[in-house]
Design goal:
Layout (H helix, E strand, L loop, with lengths): L8 E2 L10 H7 L15 H21 L6 E4 L2 H15 L6 E5 L4 H10 L13 E5 L9 H6 L5 E5 L13 H11 L4 E5 L9 H4 L5 E5 L10 E5 L25 H39 L3 E3 L10 E6 L4 H10 L2 E2 L15 H5 L4 H4 L2 E5 L6 H19 L1
Parallel strand pairs: 1-11, 3-4, 3-5, 5-6, 6-7
Antiparallel strand pairs: 2-8, 7-8, 9-10, 10-12
Helix pairs in contact: 1-8, 2-8, 3-4, 8-12, 9-12
Bound molecules: pyridoxal-5'-phosphate.
The site of pyridoxal-5'-phosphate has 14 residues, from α3.
Length: about 400
């Protein structure tokens, strides 16, 4: 018999966050006796409908929106696709312009590229023009370049609230002000998937017309999300059918998922200030400990500018894939921050946009902390990483 497996130190909350107990409890009845189809009219359907609308109201209040502005989707990827393709699909211009930061998630960049006639060209949509706005060395959007990119027929601007890889929080208020001044007809979308566990999205994204949220990054269920669509924002659906969600997203409602998302957002909001401080202190201990134990460790972005749960580090001279395997052997779940479907890790487009070389980008590891992270998890990572890096450098 081999030695027992080490306990798991889960430090990959940006990939997904364990479900909160309150969320599982809130959802449980909807997998069992409260099973109605929210679109029907009998008592079982009315019960489901009531739960769905209660969830919608609560989510709206927590995101600073009206209930009618909350569109339930199948997650962050669908919300981002709906934002990009939904806006471009309805605009009547021949060559609409879409403007994105260089560090957007693939769920924004890929449909934007498809709309611009790139790989995966969308029928009838290939005529858009994509303008990618550079970021600075910390991963924050270059506001002067944004301003310069807003000439002509801009239909959509998409700038995330916080980045999933390095955690950099974007100056969204300034972005919104510039878009209003320079391209008043443009729709502003923000992907708030990573920001939602730590920032008050209602305040931070107040200037956006469209806001993406994903439940599973908040300790909610996977496969559920929201796109906030402010009143008056033109949007064509991606999924047609029974006309649910005011014709914006057809399909029988996932009532359990909506209830779970509301519970996750409620918990995250109630604990936000305390958790930001607690998780931020754990993150600081992890980063300071690794920096002092491992010479040549660099933080990818200044700590003051990233989410409290993010520690994105470069260990000069190592290959991230090899370090991740050694960390995993020691029970530490971390990430390279970006992966393609084949499992092979490509140098991150985010790090390259921030000015890193391909070798730098391949030496980066992302540790992300969240609502279940404890001192013990940090201790385990602090014990595992230094010998692993030393071994790889030898
Ligand atoms: N946007 C960002 C910034 C993300 O980090 C993710 C998930 O990795 C997504 C969108 C996609 O969300 P989902 O996993 O719910 O499809």
């Amino acid at each position: 018999m081999g030695s027992p497996a080490p306990p798991i130190a889960y430090l990959d909350h940006a990939a997904t966050s364990p479900m909160r107990r309150e969320v599982a409890e809130a959802m449980a009845p909807f997998g069992f006796h409260r099973f109605g189809n929210a679109s029907g009219s009998h008592s079982a359907a009315r019960d489901a409908r009531r739960a769905l609308e209660d969830a919608r109201e609560e989510i709206a209040a927590l995101l600073g929106a009206q209930p009618a502005e909350v569109v339930f989707t199948g997650g962050g990827t669908e919300s981002d696709n709906l934002a990009v393709l939904g806006v471009l699909g309805l605009c009547e211009r021949d060559h609409p312009v879409v403007v994105c930061s260089a560090v957007e998630h693939a769920a924004v960049l890929a449909p934007a590229r498809a709309a611009a006639g790139g790989r995966g060209r969308v029928v009838g949509l290939g005529t858009a023009e994509l303008r990618v706005v550079p970021v600075d060395a910390a991963g924050a959007i270059d506001l002067a370049a944004l301003e310069g990119s807003l000439g002509g027929d801009v239909a959509l601007v998409s700038v995330m609230l916080a980045n999933n890889e390095v955690g950099t929080v974007q100056p969204l208020e300034a972005v919104a002000r510039i878009v209003r001044e320079r391209a008043p007809g443009a729709v502003l979308h923000t992907d708030a998937v990573q920001a939602a566990p730590f920032l008050d999205v209602a305040a931070a994204a107040a200037g956006a017309n469209l806001i993406t949220i994903s439940a599973h990054k908040l300790g909610g269920p996977k496969g559920v999300g929201v796109l906030v669509v402010r009143e008056g924002t033109p949007l064509r659906p991606l999924i047609f059918g029974g006309g649910q969600e005011r014709e914006r997203r057809s399909g029988t409602h996932d009532v359990a998922g909506a209830v779970g998302l509301a519970a996750a957002l409620r918990q995250a909001a109630a604990q936000r200030a305390g958790e930001a401080a607690r998780v931020g202190a754990l993150r600081d201990r992890l980063v300071d400990g690794l920096r002092s134990a491992i010479p040549g460790t660099l933080e990818s972005a200044p700590r003051a500018r990233v989410l409290p749960g993010h520690a994105h580090l470069r260990f000069a001279g190592i290959e991230q894939e090899e370090l991740l395997v050694l960390l995993d052997d020691a029970g530490v779940c971390a990430s390279a921050g970006s992966a393609c479907a084949s499992g092979a890790i490509e140098p991150s487009h985010v790090l390259l946009a921030m000015g890193a070389t391909r070798a730098d980008a391949r030496s980066a590891i992302r540790f992300t902390l969240g609502h279940t992270t404890t001192e013990r998890d940090v201790d385990q990572a602090l014990a595992a990483a230094p010998p692993a890096v030393e071994r790889l450098r030898r």
